Amino acid sequence: MKTFLKTAFCCLTFLFMQNDISHAAGVVKIHYTVSFPEAQAHYADIEMKISGLAQNTLDLKMPVWTPGSYLVREYAKSVESFSAASGGQVLSSPKISKNCWHIATAGHSSIIVKYRVYCFEVSVRTSFVDAAHGFLSSAGTFMYPDKMLHEPSTVHIIPYKGWDKVSTSLEMVNNDPFTRQAPNYDILYDSPIEVGNQDVFGFDAAGVKYEVAMCGGGNYDKEKLKKDMAKIAEQETAIFGENPNKHYVFIVHNYARGGGGLEHLSSTVLGASRDNYASDQGYHNFLSLVAHEHFHLWNVKRLRPIVLGPFDYDNENYTTDLWIAEGFTAYYQNLVLRHANLSTPEVYLNAVTGEINTIENQPGLKIQPLAEASFDAWIKSYRPNENSINTGISYYDKGAVIAMLLDLEIINDTKGGKSLDDVMKYMYNTYYKEKNRGYTDVEFKQGLEKFAGTNLDEFYKKYIYGTDAIDYKKYLGYAGYTLYDELAESNDPGLGIALAGNNGKKIVTAVLRGGAGWIDGINVNDELVAIDGTPVTDINTMLNGKKPGDKISVSVNRDGLPLTLPVTILRNNRVKYKIEPLPHPNTRQLSVRNKWLNF
Ligand SMILES: [Zn+2]
User: Fold this and answer.
1) N or C: which end of the chain has fewer CB within 10 A?
2) Total-model pTM
3) Which of 423, 396, 391 is nearest to 407 (CA)?
4) Cα of 95 to ligand 1 centre, how many Å?
5) What spacing in Å lies between the alpha carbon of 238 and ligand 1's midpoint?
6) What tens digit of pLDDT does each residue of 62-89 get?
7) Among positive and negative, which fits the CA dihedral 34, 37, 42, 43?
């Protein structure tokens, strides 16, 4: 998700022409000092010195979002005590929009701006500061002078008492770890900063110096992590043919329960559960997250949809290609582990089965096309509600499944000679390296067709722009596999609702489109009280012995009022697919399987 490109996309040579010029144009210099005098109360204090100005007014802006996380987060909501001054003289600086301060520089070439940022939102894309450490999401910390996104800046960090380390991919100035520089704002905003007493270790892989900053403790085995993370780095570098970084930083936030990650050009921030490293599943999940975010350093950070860089930090940046940027990355996060021998074919196929079952049990699969899920990420995926399961589909899960179909198509069409890897490498070389820009929808499709050796119009019409049923058997068949629904013959009764316990009460949290609850009017937030007059305990147990077509009465409490609904039970339409090898695969199927799963 982002703009970045080392060779910045610049821009803007008209910068000194907008206002009356009262000084000769100089070289603009921007320097931030970040301190934490009240870290315990979750504040970062920012001082911004700008010199070399030659204009009578200056608009300072805070981005409204951060690349990679497609939601307008309104970072300016956490800003307070903004002031601007020059030589001891306070400058007028009214806000003129939600994220813009309009400073009357009055001809001064140097000004000092101060503001505070409240940092108490735990996530990989928001800042968090307490007495133990400071994590700065740069887009929510550093304001930029309007129309100067191409300008370099320096950042000096004054740590809170007892903090002794800074972890960030921003390069040091004069070998001082507390002073860093960014060649432009796209890179500054793409470089989160961790300050504290994190456990830092490193390893070399693919010609890159990797740094891992572990925050919050955990039962991780450092030596094992170094070895396994290096394998992932090597495996992913081999797909693209080069690793464009010299230095890469993993910032890992360990919590009682944590997860998720955000990719950057030369770093990533990961959330993890501190006690889960020792379990097979927990460790696998962590490596899978590492593989996902690290894969992004190519896919989306450099090889990217054309609108994702240079960025508009004031508004939504719409793309129909997140199924490639995120879905393909989700596909590779598991495949790379398999190819690096960090998981078995069985574990890999289980992950695929999980993705298929997730999307096939989601009524929204038949409503929202993949391209639309991507475009509407800003208002739907990132703003889910109780009806999301009925109306939308994840461009991660379905995108990963689509990537698998395309990979199998290419491997089959080339008789095991090529794979989706070749498309990724070709697209990276062509659009990031040669053309130094993002790809359009059509260009990515052409890249796929080049290697699939077949026209993909129909494929796109059905699976990207349409909601057709996915022909899993055809594609898995290429590799000598099939799949079947273990519940196909079942006639189990169901109400088509999801429940959550709340102080001993059973509260409806979702009503599935087309299910019994949907048709007969059970609502989200209803408290399920009784079925046929018997107080509700376990719903499945209570439906034992019933069959589709049976009529029951469901008593609910809705907004404090009792209500009894007549409900006709329907068949539980849940599917549970399983992938199985075909009994007698032919040579071609075996060669596809070997290439796909690295047997
Ligand atoms: Zn991702």
Assistant:
1) C
2) 0.94
3) 423
4) 34
5) 20
6) 999 999 999 999 999 999 999 999 999 9
7) negative
